[in-house]
């Protein structure tokens, strides 16, 4: 708090405006000064006339912010720097093939394995911050320590945001109303600007563009997925994002991952798609309900990824041509 300007504080904690009002503090000309600098601007005469107690105003503001954060369930996003998975056992009760795995901020880890092998179970263990109390016996640490139980039950500031294959909206809202509701619940000050950022990011991911007046119920699968990814990246306070298969979503998968990681999220995604699997820094291989091994994406694989992307571009190009009714020709003709 001591280093932030009043303008920055108001942006971060919009509720402090009511503290200034209650204490009759006119900070309007001091937005680029810290609260201490503002208090220091009072003359000795002001202090005596209005019985101003600078130390008390400062410590009360600090206490007010803490209390409001507690009351509103605000967890600061920057607090989660790493997620650690402690090994448990597979479906046969055998120990998993690793001891512990730590994933840091801005890292992408993919999860691969046959259908029914336990990929979703691993994502669920993370969401539940398992403490040896799920069928896998795994443990989850946050910043190297046992996570606070309140992560499990706080609905406002969840540790984890889940992006699943099916995004079925049941509310009768426009995209704008939906985003406004979310922005307001997150106490965002500049709602308009945030909404503009999200819609532009979402349209950057979706094949077909949509606008703010589109009802969420009439978005296509790809569009709603793009909207949820942009919303999660830009507006969600959850530092960890779990993705269950985005391959069939009809969105630009590479841009989606780049967007999430650029917002400092920890990203884990279950996938069967080689391009997505190799975009990750590491991949977890699941077999029979247990983590069998963890493979670091090698330089050779990164080179292969470039090849795969070229092939993917060819396929995407053909898909687009088919869509607009053209006939396809051999690639090199
Ligand atoms: N270590 C384990 N011990 C006991 N049961 C497990 C274990 N791991 C997974 N399971 C159970 O196995 C079943 C299948 O797992 P899960 O749904 O996670 O598979 P999946 O890999 O996500 O499959 P899909 O690719 O079809 O989505 C679930 O009921 C899950 O709870």
From TrEMBL:
Entry keywords, A to Z: ATP-binding, Nucleotide-binding, Transport
Magnesium is among the record's keywords: no
Pfam families noted in UniProt: ABC_tran
Record-linked Gene3D superfamilies: P-loop containing nucleotide triphosphate hydrolases
GO molecular function, one term: ATP binding
Domain ABC transporter: 80-314
Source organism, top-level taxon: Bacteria
Family per record: Belongs to the ABC transporter superfamily.
Name of the featured protein: ABC transporter ATP-binding protein
The organism of origin for this protein: Tissierella carlieri
